[in-house]
Amino acid sequence: MAKSKSRQTQQLSIFSWLRVHLRRKHHLRHGSHRAKKAAIHRPAKEHPVLVKLWLSLAVVVVLSIVVSPFVGAATQTWSQTDWSGGVGSGDSQYVSASTSVTAGSGAVGLAPSGDWCATANCTDDWTIRRRVAIDSTVAKTDYQVELKVAYETGMNNDFSDIRFVSPDGTSDMDYWLERKTDGVEAVFWVKIPTLANGANEIMMYYGNSAAASLSDGEATFMFFDDFEGASIDASKWEVVSPATFSISGGKLAVSKSGNGWSASIASQQGFNRADQLAVDYDYLWVTNNTGYDAIMMGWRNSKTDPAYARQTHGYYNIGAGNATTVAQRVYENGTSIGLGGGSHDWSMAVPYDVSVRLKSSSGARYLYRSDPSLAYIEALSSSAASSSPLHVGFSVHSGRHDIDNVRVRQWSQVEPTVTFAAASEGPYEASGELVSRVFQADNDRTLWGQASFASANSSGVKLFVRTGSQSDMGDAAAFAGCNEIASGTDISDNNCVDDGDQYIQYRLELSSDGYTATTVTAVNIEYDYAAETPDQGEQAPPSASGGSQPSPTATPTSSGSGGGRQPSANAGARSAAPTDSGPSRVTHNQATAQEGRAQPTDLTPLVDRLDRLERKDQRGQYLLFGIGLAIVSGIIMNVLMVHSAYMRYLSLDGRRNISAQPGRLKMLSLWLLGAIMSLGIVIMLRVFWLIVAG
Question: May I ask the CATH class of domain 237-416?
C-alpha cells in the first residue's frame, strides 16, 4: 500500500500537488484522521493556469503582429533593378554608360566584345578565341593556308569546335581538317578570302562542347576528293579502264595486273597554269608484282587518253621487279627528265604526302614527305613542259596503289608564316562603367545607411556613391576622388557621402577577365530621416564670447532650403575639393566666419550623431537587452513558483519528499512561457517608443 501511495503521489502535477497539500493542512486542523488520510490521495482538479498563460501569450503575439509594421518603418531603400530606359532621369534610366556596357531590364553588365563572332557558324556559344597572325610575301585571293593547331584547354578533344572567322567577327572562313591526334594536335587548311602582302590576321574560335566539325574540303580547295563515297564521282573524274579503279576504305584503290599504260583517271575540271597551282595527295604503294608496279602521278594534258606521254608532269614510281624500294623518277610529256639516282626513293607500305606544283610559265616542282610533321622535301624542280590547261591525273601501268585526299590549291614560292597569339581571349569586354540617375530623398534630414549590389561576379564590380544638396549634383564630390564601397556596408562615413544631403548618385565600375560575365542585377541604398530640430533661422542664444547672432539671410546650409541641420564633417572636407560639375560647397559656418562674426554653438551634428547611434548602430543592443530581460524574468518567475510550492510542502509534511516535486516538462513550459511573454512586452515597449519618438 505504501508503494502504491508513492506512485500515485509522483503522478500529481505541480498544481494538484499544491492543492492536495493545502487541503491536507486544512483537514489536519479541522477534520478526522480518515479525512486527513483521504485528502492525501484524492485526485485534485487541475488548475487552469497553463490555459491562462497560453491565452496571454496569444494576446502578446497578436499585438506584436499588429504593430510590427511600425518597427523600422523609418528605414527606406532606393533600389534599382531596371536600366532599360536608356539615358535620362527616369526610374529605369541612367546618366551615362560605356559602349562596352549593356543596360536592360533586370541587369546591367559588360557586353560581349564588339568584334566577337556573330556568323552562321560561330556565335556567342563559343567562349574562347585566339588571334592568328599570317605574314605573306604576296597578295592573294582565296588562298589556302596550313595551320597546325596544338590542343588547348577548352577545346573539344577532337577539335570539332574549331572555327575560323574574319577579324571583325562577321565572316566565316572555310576550312578542312587534314589530320589530327585527339587531345594533341590537328592540321587545318583555311581559305583566306583576301590575303594581303604583309601582315594579316584571322580569329580562331573554340570552347563550345556542343559544336560539330564543319570541315569541308570542297569549299576550301579549288578541287577536292577524299573518296568517302561508295563509288567514284563521275562529276569529278574521267575514268579510262574503270576496272582498274574503285573505292575501298575511303580511298581510291588502283589495281592492275597486266602490263601496259592502258588505264588512267583525270579530273573533269581543267586548270590554268598561270594560276600557279599545286596538286597534293596521299600516296601508298601497297604491294609489288613480279614485273612492274608502275604509276605516274601529277598533271595530264588529256583526260581521255591513258598514254603516259599525256602525263605532262608525272611523278613516277617504276616499281620494277620484286623490289620494295625504288628510286623516284620524273617524266614530262613521256620523257624522263631526272632522278633515278637513289637519293629520293619510293618504299612499299610507307605512306607519303606528295605535292606537284605547277610553275606559272613552265615546269613544276616535285615534293614529298613520309613524316607529316616534317617539311616537304623537294626532289626535283623542272622548267621544260609548259602545257595548259591541265587536269589532275594518274596513268597506270600495273601494280596495287592507294590514292587519297586529292586537292588543288594555290601555292607560293615562300609560303605565309603563321603565328598564334600567346594568350587567348574571352567573349566579354574587359571593362566599362555606368553612372546612375540622381535619386532625391524626401527631405534634407536624410541619414544614409547601407549600400549593396547583387552580382554573380562581385569581384568584377566596384561601387562608388556620392551625395549632394543640389539636384544636378553640382556641389557633389567627383567620383574619381570617392572611396570604393564594399557591398552591404554603411556609407555614412564615406568621404563622398554626407548625412543631410537630399540627393544621391552611384557609379558602377565593371571589369572582367574576358571569360566571365560581369553583371549587376540590383543596386540598393538604404536611408531614413533624423528627428526634426529647431530651425536654424530662429534666434539662437548669445555665444559665450558675446558675439553677434547669425543673420536670418545667411547662406543656406548643405542640408537644403529653410535652415535645417548643418552638414557633417565630410561636407567640410568635400567643399575644399573640386567637384565634377559645380563649385565647392560653402557651409553656413564658413560664410559667417568669412564675415568676421562669432559662431553660435551648433549642437545639430551631435544630435544627428546620437540619433544615428539610436536608430542604426545600436539597434542590436535593444534586442540583446530584451532577450536578456526575458531570460531573467523567466528564471525569476519559475524560482518563485517552485520555491513557494516547496516551502508549503515542507510546512505540511515536515520533511522533504523529492518524488512530489513538479514535473520537469511543466517547469520548462512555465519558464519558456515566462520568457516569451517578457520578450513580447519588451518589444511592444520598444515599438511604442519608436512611434512616440518618431
Answer: mainly beta
